[in-house]
Inverse folding.
């Protein structure tokens, strides 16, 4: 069974333009997104421009500042300080990967939590990891990383309840693997985290009922290591030998083995973008509530 994300993404996005217009009327200006993108990573930068274009179609004002390996750390951090303090900026987005010096600068400390639409600031992450139950997550005053949130929404849309499932998350990044594992734990899944140093992935996957993979390795998951009949959420984006976009999974073979698989493209990706756009609008709506 294919676990498509296109229908869910369309449902999330359907009311967003009207909500953006309502916020703009109350603020007296469009919702404003400030993004910083690294031109050193072509794929990530192109995707950022796609996100910006999608936001602009909703009537959101977007400013994109470019950085690269030559950008001084002080200049980068100053950009974030200014954006966090600017009352006319409602949302901040810093896609990764960043150049090493910028990535290691502790920049997440300088993002205002109320504007942190991808849940990467220290405050946002701290709030998330203090959650124990799903009720705690639902009561969060800050945002959750969009890709991790998209996986949960995709599971819910296909009526897959992670409670009690033996679950493996492949990847331990702070943007996807770690927050996703924690969200699934809050949904009462029993979660194991695997990564590049996992000695025998096939052994770790034995008995897995739900697998979420963000390894970034085409062909990593196949009928030789994925239990038949399991559910696989493929989060990765890779290029195969023919330069076609793919995930970590041998999708067709796993479907034939009775697995449920989210496709790449068309699975988690469109839902992540929809969640990001929704969070931009939520940042404006929260500003209005705080002013009442």
């Amino acid at each position: 069974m294919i676990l498509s994300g296109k229908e869910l993404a369309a449902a999330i996005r359907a009311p967003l333009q009207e909500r953006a217009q309502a916020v703009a009327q109350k603020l007296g200006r469009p919702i404003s997104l400030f993004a910083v993108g690294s031109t050193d990573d072509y794929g990530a930068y192109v995707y950022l421009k796609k996100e910006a274009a999608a936001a602009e179609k909703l009537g959101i004002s977007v400013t994109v500042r470019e950085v690269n390996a030559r950008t001084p750390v002080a200049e980068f951090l100053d950009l974030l300080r200014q954006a966090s303090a600017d009352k006319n900026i409602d949302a901040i987005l810093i896609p990764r990967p960043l150049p090493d010096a910028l990535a290691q600068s502790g920049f997440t400390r300088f993002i205002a939590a109320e504007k942190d639409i991808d849940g990467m600031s220290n405050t946002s992450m701290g709030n998330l990891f203090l959650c124990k139950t799903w009720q705690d997550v639902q009561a969060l005053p800050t945002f959750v990383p969009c890709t991790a949130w998209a996986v949960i929404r995709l599971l819910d849309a296909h009526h897959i309840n992670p409670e009690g499932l033996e679950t493996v998350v492949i990847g331990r990044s702070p943007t996807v693997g770690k927050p996703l594992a924690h969200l699934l734990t809050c949904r009462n899944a029993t979660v194991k985290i695997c990564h590049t140093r996992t000695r025998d992935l096939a052994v770790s996957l034995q008995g897995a009922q739900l697998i979420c993979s963000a390894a970034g390795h085409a062909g990593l998951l196949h009928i030789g290591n994925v239990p038949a009949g399991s559910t696989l959420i493929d989060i990765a984006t890779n290029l195969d030998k023919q330069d076609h976009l793919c995930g970590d999974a041998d999708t067709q073979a796993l479907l034939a083995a009775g697995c449920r698989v989210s496709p790449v493209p068309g699975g988690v990706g469109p839902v992540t973008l929809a969640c990001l756009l929704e969070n931009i609008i939520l940042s404006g709506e929260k500003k209005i509530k705080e002013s009442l």
